[in-house]
Amino acid sequence: MQTDLIQEARRQAEICNACRYCEGYCSVFPSLHAERAFSDGDITQLANLCHNCRGCYYACQYTAPHEFDLNLPKALAEVRRDSWESFAWPQPLARRFHTHGGAIALALVVGFALLFWAIRMIGSAGGEGFYAVLSHNAMVAIFAPAFLLPLFSIGISLRRYWYVVGGKPIQLRDLKAALTRAARMQDLAAGHVEGCNFEDEDRFSQARRHVHHAIMYGFLLCFASTSVATIMHYGFDMHAPYGFWSLPKLFGVTGGVLLTVGCCAMVLLKQKSDRKLGDASAWGGDFGFILLLGFVALSGLVLYALGSSVLMPALLAIHLGSVLALFLLTPYTKMAHGFYRMAALVRDEQRHRN
Fold first, then answer.
1. DSSP-assigned states of every residue in 98-131
2. Distance between CA atoms of 111 and 336, rounded to whole angstroms?
3. Which of 77, 83, 38 is nearest to 57 (CA)?
4. Strand partners, 205
5. For the chain, where are the alpha helices, taking DSSP H only?
6. Can you tell me whether residue 196 is helix, strand or coil?
């Protein structure tokens, strides 16, 4: 990792640890105040715990033009992004996609091209619905590696992170507490449970917390839709297409709506926020990822609505191409932050226990 980023974050964390005026503004600050001195691993852990709510900055008396020039949200955001890039495998891909929205757009175009090529060259020997365009076996051959290989990459990255932050063997109660904390988006409510100042320094708001809820649960419902359909296909010999009142469709449509609305709202919130309080170099990459995730959800809804029309083959290629890009880019975009945040929460629960 970049030592200058670590050192600057350490300098600011030591001042915050001595002052402690902002403790009530942030639910993560107790973890900062638990330390007397900060190793590189401590700073990396704090950076991945931080939700960039910015309440500490707006309450701080040592921001510019004070000589201390504190901007802890920015310092931790830069360390956080650098940790994802440094621990990623293979590393060069992470440094490209975390900071370049254009690279994400290019990956999306490549995804479209691959799926159009697959549909044209492979085709289908028969079947109903989408399988009349691209066979089930062809879909599995394309998307199983695209799903499993990124998970393998994420596993390597998290192993590196766990070693650096001094993680210990995970116990069930650590995992349960971390999952509960993530499910409630507890840290986005801030230390006083009134929300954060992400989009407006003069007003506490729960908007960012609710938007994260919509995105997270929307994504999980979409994943549940695919998982249930897989079980129905292989376990019960119930093949697609499924009716609207089936579990795959109910999960998928509900998740798609939540994910689309959540991504649109997140774009609006980020546009309202002060770019100087985050990692400016990752701004394009963050926007590119949000737009990609929202496009996956929206294209899926459009495909469902027009699935019986002559546009279905083209819409299927567009949707599956975006899904392919999302899967392959998971370890190298903002999507990785969910895995790191969960690891940081588990490590924090271990700290509480000790």
1. TT-HHHHHHHHHHHHHHHHHHHHHT--SS-SGGG
2. 19
3. 77
4. 196
5. 3-19, 29-33, 40-49, 55-59, 72-87, 91-97, 101-121, 136-164, 172-183, 207-235, 247-272, 283-305, 312-329, 337-353
6. strand
Q: Residue 205: helix, strand or coil by DSSP?
A: strand
Tell me the pTM: 0.91
The pLDDT value given to residue 124: 64
329: buried, middle or exposed (CB in 10 Å: 19+, 13-18, 0-12)? buried
Q: Give, as one character, the DSSP assignment of residue 20.
A: -
Distance CA(203)–CA(58), nearest Å, equals 10
The two three-digit tokens of residue 268, written as one number: 């609006």
**Phi and psi dihedrals of 244, rounded to 5?**
-60, -35
Radius of gyration of the chain (CA): 22
Contact indicator for 121, 107 with CB cutoff of 8 Å: no
Cβ-contact 185, 198 below 8 angstroms:
no
Give the model confidence (pLDDT) of 174-228 as tens digits.
999 999 999 999 888 887 788 888 887 778 889 999 999 999 999 999 999 999 9
Residue 232's Cβ-count burial label (10 Å; 0-12, 13-18, 19+) is middle
CB-based contacts of 61: which residues, under 8 Å, 6+ apart?
21
Residue 171 is given by DSSP the state P
Cα 157 from Cα 274, distance rounded (Å): 30
In three-state form (DSSP H/G/I as H, E/B as E, the rest C), the secondary structure along 229-280 is HHHHHHHCCCCCCCCCCCHHHHHHHHHHHHHHHHHHHHHHHHHHCCHHHCCH
Q: Quote the CA–CA distance of 68 and 18 in Å, as a whole number.
A: 13
Distance separating alpha carbons of residues 334 and 266, to the nearest angstrom: 13
**Cα–Cα distance between 245 and 254 in angstroms, integer?**
12
Report the distance separating Cα 350 and Cα 354, nearest Å: 6
The model's pLDDT over 125-165, given as tens digits with 9 standing for 90+, comes to 666 778 788 888 888 888 899 899 999 999 999 999 999 99
